[in-house]
Amino acid sequence: MRKSAKAFVTMALSASMALSGLGAAVPAFAEEKIDLSKAGVSEDTTEAPVEATGDQEITFVLSNQPDSIDPSYTNNSFASFVLANCFEGLVTYDENGEIAPGDAESWESNDDMTVYTFHLRDGLKWSDGSDLTAQDYVWTAKHVCTPDTTAQYLNMYTDYIVGCQEYYDSGDDSNFGVKALDDQTLEFDLKNTCSYFVDLVSMWCFNPVKQDTVETNGDKWTQSPDTYVCNGPFKMAEINNGESYVLEKNENFWDADNTTLQKLTFRYILDTSTALTAYENGEVDGIRSIPSGDLARLKAEDAGLKTTPNYGTVYYDINCSKEPYNNPNVRKALNLAIDRDELINNVVQLDAQPAYSWLAPGYVSNGKDITEGRSDFGLSEHADPDAAKAALAEAGYDDPSTFPTLQLSYYSDDTAKKVAEALAEMFETNLGIKVEVSSADWAVFYDAVQNGNYEVAAMGWSADYINPMSFLPLLYTNDVSNTIFYSNTDYDAIVDQARVESDPAKYAELVEKADETASNDYPVIPLYYKANSYLMHDNVSGYYMISNGNLYFRYAKVAN
After folding, report:
1. Cis peptide before 354 (omega within 30 of 0)
2. pLDDT at site 329
3. Phi, psi of 555 (to 5 degrees)
């Protein structure tokens, strides 16, 4: 048996997030490391611990509201702040961004990595004080695999676990691959070898939700503190729609003795300049989104700017199912018209690396980042107007004025607005086409993207777990995460091979091949690889952000 217990916390820096493998005991990815130095992170953000004094309360400002705080439903990264602090899955992440035991104190797999067994801690409780057992994880799995749940991460179950697709299709659980062997032992039977499965279960769609509160309240269970039963270091105290979520310490959390913070408020201030003013006036302790024009000043002033790695890419979706964007030459022309250096240095003003593929650097195989030395796919940091117009002509538009007006959309956000306006100008100047720009609140915007009601739209991806496989499904035919509506049978076949490959070197080769196959079709407009930047006053310590942007406050302390 391949085993991993408490000592084996070097398992995988899972993103949205950071990686290793499953430790020496599960060797498939044991030598793989995450190296995010290319994300533009150079400063040491380690916080010196403070002595907790006074009221242990923190207010942290967010600038984007999530579509839901239901871990079984949402795939929206804006929900991560609530979910990462109110829930805990079988595994979690420590301050080094490494996989650590969560509800499960140990786990192992069989030799071919098709069966994984997790051993839960003694005495686990829900926030309401009732017992949490392995059966709660089984019920949650079935809940996710129920059509009415409309789970955004359904494929994390149906693609990997035996019987989940059948349960979704017919309700037949006779061969359901998530089983409670007893109250403290949970088993997953997989369809194929999966060396990165423990990375997968770090995702919040594997977090348990309580059966009776969900069944009694339906989809409204997340709308009241009384019904929002969770199992993490914090529980819900107040829900002020559109204004804030107020969390308080969960005394029933298994590690509650190590949680000092008593109150954690996530306050919504949609305008980032207003949020910054509140921070600089001392009204709040931290803010997630910083006006790009203030980054250099805040860094120079040592105003609490924190920068952490991000295993992700900022890009624009191109709807590959729509005319004329179903033509690769049209997509190539759009890519060639972009001045990425201008975007990075003058528009968003970030320390970032120009991107020529949707697949971010950061995954290392045999001591080498798998993206090192890869093709630039004919792109560069500067625009090439002549080549862009030539590609457009090859697509049948010798006269750019005959190209239909491009509909460019973005979600309501100060930085997203600046980028969209800059892109529109580049398309008009370097290609000679007309562009109409529109925006909407995130929920409306993302619903349109998911349903294909767009042409070119602001998007991006931070890996849900630190492994290239978090990126590859984004372009897989008919995958739920493929909002680009790209389809390439050669690409699909390569991804299918990679999913079941246990040899690290061969896996890396397949990932490189998949990247090359898709990127030569220009399915998206990659802009840059970035870091996570946020602000926090120096009297707060013990919090940590991992590379998927999840911010953990379970060990936070305040010195007043």
Report:
1. no
2. 98
3. -110, 15
